[in-house]
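Hi Y.,

Following your request, here is the sequence exactly as I used it, all 87 residues.
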Amino acid sequence: MSEVPEVRPPTVTPVRVVIALCLIAPFVAMLWVGSYARTGPEFIGIPFFYWYQMAWVLISTALTMTAYQLWQRDQRARAARKDGASK
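Below is the corresponding structure, written out as tokens. Let me know if you'd prefer a different format.
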């Protein structure tokens, strides 16, 4: 009765670290108020304080989309490994 032990992929992988960084970066940028609590430089007449935050709306969207795509690819790879190992 020799049973083959189930080989599980590691929980923390480089891809998952990148996903976490993509999701954490906007929080860090917005919580670090000292980095953007000023009026200059202005962009088309809008003080830095406001356009910096609006820029992070777009950046956060792009980072979230990237994290989602990486997560989907990671899940497909794990499912393929699991299906390949069970055959």
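The chain has one domain: 14-81.

Thanks again,
Q.
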